[in-house]
Amino acid sequence: MQLSFKKIKNTLVITMSGELDQHVAASIRGELDRKIRTSGTQNIIFNMSKLKFMDSSGLGVIIGRYKTASALGGKTKIAAPSAEIKRLIKLSGLNKIISVCGSVETAMKGM
Amino acid sequence: MDNFVKIEFFSKGENQAFARVCASAFAAQLDPTLEEISDIKTAVSEAVTNAIIHGYEGGEGKVTLSMKREGRTLTYIVSDKGCGIENIEQAMTPLYTSKPDFERSGMGFTVMESFMDSLFVASKPQSGTIVTMTKNIL
Fold it and tell me: Alpha-carbon distance B72 to B70, whole Å?
């Protein structure tokens, strides 16, 4: 799993590459939280365009960061997930609290 | 039975990806769609994760993945000899997690049930858990 970060105005865009399972989730939580705390941004966009695999452990990672952003008064969105990951998101009902957009550009609207 | 493979590995997190690769490689003999492969990988990943973090609670143990093919039906059996599940019905309830502090979504069994064609869970406290899942490849 590789993470890259880009700050756009008040939003931190987190691009995830590779596979996100429980093993990876345990190792990236700390890095994500540190980056969110130090970035000075309120909103988060998870760019999943390069994420090849995610299981329910990934949902836990997203929900955890959603709580962090919400506590800061910010919004969380998901951009460009694969069809398979989108199915997982819908199954969990996560899409009812976090917007799922086709691209980062679309997700940036309203941020 | 037309084919059978059994692998055993330590309950280490890095073996989750290994188990997924094995599960999808075994399915490849039936020329599945990308969606079917994704369903199998995700379901097996959930079962192996449960064995590692719930069965052995992050400690040492062995996880077994058995894979069978009968016609167009694939069976995946993930078993551990860990602490077992006290209440299977509760464990299978969507969003239920016994480890809320670990940011578990509580969706593992729901994902297995939704992405596979059948799911059966057998468990005995202090003896272990056996998760059996089948997938019909169209």
Answer: 6
What ipTM, to 2 d.p.?
0.90
Best residue in B78, B101, B105 for a mutation probing chain A (most A CBs within 10 Å): B105
Give, to the nearest 10 degrees, the angle between helix A22-39 and helix B15-27. 130
Report pLDDT for A110.
87
Nearest by Cα to A102 from A84, A88, A82: A82
B57 touches chain A (CB under 8 A): no
Q: Which of A99, A110, B35 is nearest to A90 (CA)?
A: A99
Is A54:A83 a contact under the CB 8 Å cutoff?
Answer: no
Question: How many contacts (CB atoms, under 8 Å) link A and B?
Answer: 62
Q: Alpha-carbon distance A73 to A56, whole Å?
A: 26
Interface contact B20-A53, CB threshold 8 A:
yes
Calculate mean pLDDT across residues A91-108: 96
Phi, psi of B133 (to 5 degrees): -130, 140
**Contacts for B77 with CB less than 8 Å, ≥ 6 apart:** B64, B65, B66, B67, B68, B130, B131, B132, B133
Q: Considering only alpha carbons, which residue of chain B is nearest residue A83? A: B35
Q: What pTM did the predictor assign?
A: 0.93
Q: Which residue of A has its CA nearest to B39?
A: A84
Q: What is d(CA B79, CA A23) in angstroms, rounded to the nearest whole number?
A: 19
